[in-house]
Design goal:
heterodimer, A: MetI-like fold, 1% strand, B: mainly alpha, MetI-like fold, 9 helices, cell membrane (chain B), MetI-like (chain B)
Amino acid sequence: MTSVLYDAPGPKARRMSRIISLIGIVVIAAGVVALVLALGAPKASANGAVQPGLWDLSRWDVFNDLEVWRSLGRGALATLEMAGVAAVLALLLGVFFSFGRASDTAWIRVPTTIVLEFFRGMPVLLMMLFILLVFSTGSFWAGVAALSVYNGAIIGEALRAGIKALPRGQREAGLAIGLTPIATRLRIEFPQAFRQMLPIIIAQLVVLLKDTSLSFVVGYSELLRVGVRDLTNFFGSRYSFSFFFVVLAIYLAMNLSLSWLARRIARRSGAQGSAPAGKPDSPDPAPAVNRFVGPSGYSGDANGV
Amino acid sequence: MDAVIDNLPVFLEGFRNTLGLLVISGVGALILGMIVAGLRISPIASFRGFATVYTEIIRNTPLTLILFFCAFLLPYLQFSPGYFALAVIGLTVYTSPFVAEAVRSGINGVHVGQAEAARSIGLGFGQSLAFVILPQALRMVVPPLINVFIALAKNTSVAGAFFVFELFGAARKVTNDRGDQVLAILLAVAVFYLLITVTLGVIAGRVEKRVAVLR
């Protein structure tokens, strides 16, 4: 796209851009090195005591202790447990919400819309506190409930948009072959909408995984609370940076792998995903994706263009 | 209900601070995000790589962890301009890659044919960018940007857990004082949040209709 905007570079312009690129690399690398050195430099605090730099071995020896890794593992497992339970509930709620939102009867549609708008406009943290205090569920279920309601509302909206984006003929064909309206929605429209929206849904699950760290505030001991608070309190603030970096690395590893999965699925199902736009380039109907929608009798390439 | 009415000044102070956090870090994130987006589409490969790595790392880090860094570890490095400013820094950094992605997808969303047409009627690089690409890209960017700001409005609540007295902090304080009326208090705070998010949502809908590019 940008290459359209200017003429193809000649030898001079290419050399120029290579030089600028090299200078850019040097500048960025110098910045990173300066930052690392600045963090590593020992510095005197207000009362004259000298603190060792951040990369000093005395700040990292705590990781020789096996118990530290065990605690971090327990924290990560607690995070994943909350994310897993909340993800399943959020998906179920999302399906439920999308059916209510796309319903033909106004008595169902209007209240669902209001409830959805309410949930989507509220901070997750406030919902967690709300559920913890009003229903006194304990911190785990408060976190799970808040996360699944909030993300369920967003997934519900995505699914509804997916159902709405389908060609009308899909519904008409379902009704024409004698399926009831509910069966049409369940067996014809919903599987297609789900598959189209799968990248968005997985992206939302990454958000959900990130948001489990909010339950730190209501007192659930997950990765963040264990890693940067409990361990620091126990071993002393000398190690606070080391613990922070390790917790950051664990979060990045979990989230990046899920994001990568989302992108992979998006690439696989993206081509034939946009049925109304009618993109002709959909060579393989991606059989792996079909597994997500279950035995619905819907074959990948039957999508009406 | 009386717990809400008695503590209305507390809520209003929290609301003011929430709005302050939203506006200041919103503007900061807009500026930082534009810079990152600019780096990301620049012809220089090393800038592009840097911006991509920055975006990926920040987007996959929980906001709580970033705010924890700002609230506890920056003061430890003898940088402590107060918790409000620290929260603004954290929210700005966290929101900037989302702004950058919105801007970038807007620019990428302009059809190639537009650029080709601009070039073929003889416009130069600067001209086709200024008269053809950017006017369309900016219009398409506005609705997703407002969505980013809606998310930011909700994210300011996390700052309440890190010593900033905003709406969530107000909710915690008042519920500690009046444990008997938790439901009314939390519903009142929810109304304040909805005031911000629903308003922004309505604006987004309006803008979307007004500036939609016909094609």
